[in-house]
Every structure is written in C-alpha cells, then in structure tokens.
Specification:
Elements (H helix, E strand, L loop, with lengths): L2 E5 L4 E5 L2 E2 L8 E2 L28 H7 L31 E2 L6 E2 L2 H12 L3 H6 L7 H18 L1
Antiparallel strand pairs: 1-2, 3-4, 5-6
Length: about 160
C-alpha cells in the first residue's frame, strides 16, 4: 500500500512505498503520519496531512539549490530510530509538539488540534492570560534562557 508525498522542490505529488530518503539523511526511513504519529502503512491516512519531501528524481537538484552536493548527509545526534530527543517527553515517549502556554505535550496532531480549537478553549493558561497581552510562558522561559546564554557568551 503506497501513500503520497508532495515534492516541495518541483511542486508535484509522488507515490511512496513506505520508506523515503529525507534531505541530509544517510538512508531511507519509515514514513510516519504527521497527524497520528504512526507509520503511514498502518491504517488509512488518505485524509491526513501530506509530508513535503523532494521526490527521488528531484532530491539531487534540491540539494544543489541549497548549496550542498547530492549525497551530503548529517548524522542524527540521537542514534536511536525514534528520532531526536527534542521530540520526546520527559519519559522518552515520542511527541509531535507541545503548548507554549501550558506546556502540555501532544502525542498526535489530533490531540494538538483539540487543544487549540475554539480559541484554545482547552488551554487553561491561555484562557487566563489571553486578555492581558502576555507572551506564552514557555516561550518567555526559552527566550530568557537564550538571553542568559548570550550574556555568558559575551563575557
């Protein structure tokens, strides 16, 4: 059973058989549903988001356009097959993102959509602060960490 990607370099859809080589990756990896966080070959994902990914015919041209020779790879920082630790919760479970307001982890895009629907009705922190023109608390902490790092680098 195949699924579709959209070639973001030449602007066309292309069919994939379950694994694909992403830019800068040393080898093909399993295609995961962006909405559900499971392999595309598990279930029907015909209504789900389509991954933007250069097709095999245009990958080399895309690499050259970005200033890299075809075949250039970057080894992943985290060698496990689940991907970067940046996309895992504190227990090591894969997440697709988190809320910058309340720091809730999202384990699927459906969960994120429910949380952010209806003016973020399910986010208690956003609801409390939305009329006070505050920046999201998690984002404020991240920016403060960057400011502290910049101050240390200047010393």
């Amino acid at each position: 059973m195949s699924h579709r990607h959209f070639c973001d370099y030449e602007g066309h859809y292309w069919d994939c058989e379950g694994t694909a080589v992403r830019l800068f990756a040393p080898e093909a990896s399993v295609c995961m549903c962006l909405n559900h966080g499971v392999p595309m070959e598990e279930g029907d994902h015909s209504e789900c988001s389509v991954e933007l990914l250069s097709c095999p015919a245009h990958r080399a041209d895309h690499m050259r356009a970005m200033g890299y020779e075809p075949g250039y790879t970057v080894e992943p920082r985290d060698q496990d097959t689940e991907g970067s630790p940046m996309f895992k919760d504190e227990d090591g479970i894969r997440i697709v993102g988190f809320c910058l307001w309340c720091n809730k982890n999202f384990y699927s895009m459906d969960e994120e959509e429910l949380h952010t629907a209806n003016d973020m009705a399910d986010c208690p922190v956003f609801q409390e602060l939305k009329d006070q023109h505050f920046m999201p608390p998690v984002l404020e902490m991240m920016l403060e960490d960057v400011r502290l790092s910049d101050d240390e680098a200047e010393r």
